[in-house]
Specification:
The complex is a heterodimer of chains A (about 300) and B (about 475).
Chain A lengths: L19 E11 L5 E12 L5 E6 L7 E5 L4 E13 L1 E7 H4 L1 E3 L4 E2 L2 E7 L14 E8 L5 E9 L7 E8 L3 E16 L2 E14 L5 E8 H7 L11 E3 L18 E8 L10 E13 L9
Chain B lengths: L4 E6 L14 E4 L5 E7 L4 E12 L2 E8 L11 E4 L6 E7 L7 E8 L3 E11 L2 E11 L5 E12 L5 E10 L8 H26 L17 E3 L8 E6 L2 E6 L3 E3 L3 E14 L1 E6 L1 H4 L3 E8 L14 E8 L5 E9 L7 E8 L3 E19 L4 E4 L12 E17 L5 E8 L3 E6 L3 E5 L2 E8 L4 E13 L7 E5 L8
Parallel strand pairs in B: 3-12, 10-20, 13-17, 18-26, 27-31
Antiparallel strand pairs in B: 1-2, 1-5, 3-4, 4-9, 5-8, 6-9, 7-8, 10-11, 11-17, 12-15, 12-16, 14-15, 18-19, 19-22, 20-21, 23-24, 23-25, 25-30, 26-29, 27-30, 28-29
The chains are: A mainly beta (about 300), B mainly beta (about 475).
């Protein structure tokens, strides 16, 4: 160093250090009707760096900056952010390919329960991105206590984006999925179409209406229907025997997946659930085996 | 001077017989007058050039050079007379069979004088590396860029007050100096073994002194930036030479870090790229800077090295962005730094819809082809599909959560005879790759739609893509 005059000077020395790590985790308390939650974000700092830091300013870029003294091999945890009355959206989803069956012999699908958070100011969040971390979710019980209802590893969620947390499996909504029809229609030679009809029988044993998302993987359905088209290419269209009143969800549906959403009524006054039946008719078009190229 | 020993044996040959020990005049050389190290970073190679003042007597002289316990390439050692041109002549060199790592120069002199000689040789074990520290400003459009060079000496020899030059470029070597040193070591071992056998016969007690083990202190980084030192740069042939001002002492097993350059506000451009072949299946943030004078650089190439990138944050401290390898950047060339995925920019590639058409069947009986859609369909169970077109509609979904506008470049490769249809502005990168560019404003979402048509079987006639401007509708199911 060289200096034009002598004296004391404030300098900043910066360096990267290994094994001084932080992790986020969340604790959520959901209200009884599962419409809102208290959300607490914690930061856990673990110092295995071989260096102790006294009164170190710790700033993660979101939440509050803190002064922390952390010794060798020490772990410290502190509350970084807290959000009150955060609206939460509960969803139920079935997907035979990705989520499987609860009881294969009875064709009963697993029904997965998710909480969806919207990281924006209208949903009491949106001050900063939500870092990735484990979410532990509790719900108030009737005695005023709380019950652990599930946990999930949440992904990094930018401001204005959504966070979907898998909480557990729902048992009060029963979905049966049956392939009712599988009909081959020859075009010429080894070229053919396949008409597949699926039936969903859905019962809601809850006292309240619920919204159910039905996802159907076309690759899985093609495999289930014993279609030995060697190409990964899937050409499909929705057939006329489909009974869903609404169109597939535009944002979620793709060449590989068709997604519907239906609202299930609450069980009747007599205590019996209303059985909802829906049919999905898929036409797989222009199928052929790989032997075609030998014809050239 | 710890290990490298120069002995000048001035042997005035008054009698014709050389081997008589009583006629050899042994003297140790004074310290080096000057030493210059030219260090090549592409190879483990350093050219050492040193000058000394030596007393030369009239007649025949014998000069001994020894390089025991160093990493000098013995084939590269050279002697040159700087003073007294034409008065001193260098004869043959002799490598004595019984003394490893040593040579004798035979010198014929017409005069008795204090001569200046230059001894040059290659050595391995000295290296230099560049490293950079970059601090982006809060908006990410400029950075402070500080570059350093670190010289590390494991050659086995201390170099005091050396003039240091660093060569940037890739030279060709037939054999590495390391290999040559190893060869010399092998020869040394053979000689040593022979000598030991002799000694065992003569005096067993002497063996214990010949262990050949030397203590090597652990490398220590002399992390001292000497801001007063300037590093001048010049080009030579296809290489660049960085000369460090003044002289530096580089001890064996030490490193010395010197500041090479400092730029306060280098303009930086940020672009997000999806290029699976280069960066994998992800959208990465690439920082671009030009090594030119307009952008506060451009005086010399930026050598290959490591770079640590930080960013000033609102709280007045630094956020760590990435630690990367920095490739060589020529003057006026653009440097690109892949800092990885930014989770605040959502990116998703979705295959929305597929279908086949233009299907041609081959009828074996008549040996004819017919299109499935035409009116000449025949009932023939042995007919096979011979050609068809595959259509796929893709959407590249983007959401900008970064809080500032971003530029996005998407490059996709499609093999076969293909047509890419879209209303977007596309351009061909190569015969199989097309490129899309877009700008997302703050908080904007975009869905970039395009259709890929690939001709299969007998329908395929080419192996290249064709771009077609055509609006594509978002599929409705």
């Amino acid at each position: 160093m060289s200096a034009s005059q002598s004296g004391s000077a404030r300098v900043r020395i910066s360096y990267a250090i290994h094994r001084l790590e932080k992790q986020y985790h969340y604790l959520a308390q959901v209200n009884a009707d599962e419409t809102a939650m208290e959300l607490f974000q914690y930061i856990c700092v673990n110092n295995q760096s071989g260096e102790q830091f006294l009164n170190a300013g710790l700033n993660t870029g979101n939440g509050r900056p803190v002064q922390l003294s952390i010794g060798l091999n020490e772990t410290q945890e502190y509350l970084n952010q807290q959000f009150s009355s955060v609206p939460v959206e509960k969803t139920l989803t079935v997907n035979a390919a990705a989520m499987g069956y609860r009881d294969r012999s009875q064709d009963k699908l697993n029904v997965l329960m998710h909480y969806q958070l919207h990281n924006d100011t209208s949903h009491k969040l949106g001050k900063s991105p939500l870092a990735a971390g484990k979410y532990r979710i509790y719900q108030q019980d009737k005695q005023g206590g709380s019950v652990f209802i599930g946990e999930d590893q949440g992904q990094y969620t930018p401001v204005d984006d959504n966070q979907k947390l898998f909480i557990g499996k729902a048992r009060d909504v029963v979905v049966r999925r049956i392939i009712e029809r599988k009909k081959r229609k020859e075009i010429s030679g080894n070229l053919y179409n396949m008409d597949v009809l699926m039936k969903y029988e859905i019962e809601n044993f809850k006292d309240t209406p619920v919204t159910l998302t039905i996802e159907e993987s076309l690759a899985y359905l093609k495999q289930e229907s014993s279609l030995y088209d060697s190409q990964s290419f899937i050409e499909w269209q929705i057939g006329k025997d489909t009974s869903f009143k609404t169109k597939p969800l535009k944002e979620e549906t793709s060449a590989d997946k068709v997604v519907y959403e239906i609202t299930l009524p609450a069980k009747s006054n007599t205590g019996k659930p209303v059985k909802v039946k829906q049919r999905l008719n898929i036409l797989f078009n222009n199928l052929f085996s790989s032997s075609i190229t030998r014809a050239r | 001077m710890k290990n490298l020993i120069f002995l000048l044996i001035i042997l005035v040959l008054l009698c014709p017989v050389l081997t008589s020990a009583k006629n050899i005049d042994l003297s140790t050389l004074p310290d080096r007058d000057a030493v210059q190290l030219t260090i090549y970073n592409a190879e483990d190679l350093t050219l050492v050039r040193e000058t000394r003042q030596n007393s030369i007597k009239k007649g025949r002289n014998l000069l001994q050079f020894s390089w025991a316990n160093t990493r000098i390439d013995p084939t590269s050692v050279q002697l040159r007379f700087v003073s007294h041109p034409g008065q001193m002549v260098l004869g043959n060199n002799r490598y004595p069979h019984d003394k490893p790592q040593m040579l004798y120069w035979h010198i014929q002199s017409q005069t008795e004088a204090l001569a200046t000689v230059e001894i040059s040789y290659f050595t391995s074990g000295i290296s230099w590396q560049a490293d950079y520290t970059a601090i982006l400003n809060q908006s990410g459009n400029a950075m402070k860029l500080e570059s350093f060079v670190t010289v590390t000496n494991h050659s086995g020899e201390d170099y005091s007050q050396a003039e240091i030059r660093l060569v940037l470029g890739e030279i060709n070597l037939v054999e590495s100096v390391n290999a040559l040193v190893r060869e010399a070591d092998v020869r040394k071992e053979e000689l040593s073994q022979r000598r030991q056998v002799k000694k065992m016969q003569l005096a067993r007690q002497m063996l214990s002194k010949n262990s050949g083990q030397y203590y090597q202190p652990a490398p220590v980084l002399a992390d001292v930036m000497d801001s007063e030192k300037a590093i001048s740069k010049e080009s030579i042939s296809e290489y660049y030479i960085f000369s460090i001002e003044g002289r530096e002492t580089v001890k064996n097993a030490w490193s010395k870090r010197l500041r090479s350059n400092w730029a306060d506000a280098v303009a930086v451009d940020t672009v997000y790229r999806y290029r699976p072949r280069e960066y994998g299946e992800q959208l990465v943030r690439v920082l671009q800077l030009h090594n030119n004078k307009d952008l506060k650089l451009g005086e010399a190439p930026l050598p290959q090295g490591t770079i640590q990138i930080y960013q000033d944050n609102k709280e007045g401290s630094l956020s760590y962005i990435a630690g990367l390898q920095f490739n060589y950047v020529a003057i006026d060339e653009k440097a690109e730094l892949n800092t990885g995925v930014n989770p605040q920019l959502f990116f998703q590639l979705v295959n929305l819809k597929n279908w086949r058409d233009n299907i041609w069947m081959y009828y074996r009986k008549g040996k004819v082809y017919h299109c499935v859609s035409d009116d000449h369909m025949l009932v023939d169970h042995s007919a096979t599909v011979a050609g068809w077109d595959e259509h796929r509609i893709f959407v590249q979904k983007l959401k900008n959560f970064t809080g500032k506008p971003v530029k996005v470049e998407i490059r996709r490769r499609v093999t076969g005879d293909a047509v890419i249809k879209s209303s977007l502005d596309m351009k061909k990168h190569d015969f199989q790759t097309f490129e899309l560019q877009t700008v997302l404003t703050l908080g904007e979402q975009q869905a970039l739609l395009y259709e890929v048509l690939i001709k299969k079987g007998r329908n395929a006639r080419q192996n290249q893509i064709v771009l077609q401007k055509k609006p594509i509708e978002y599929p409705v199911w």
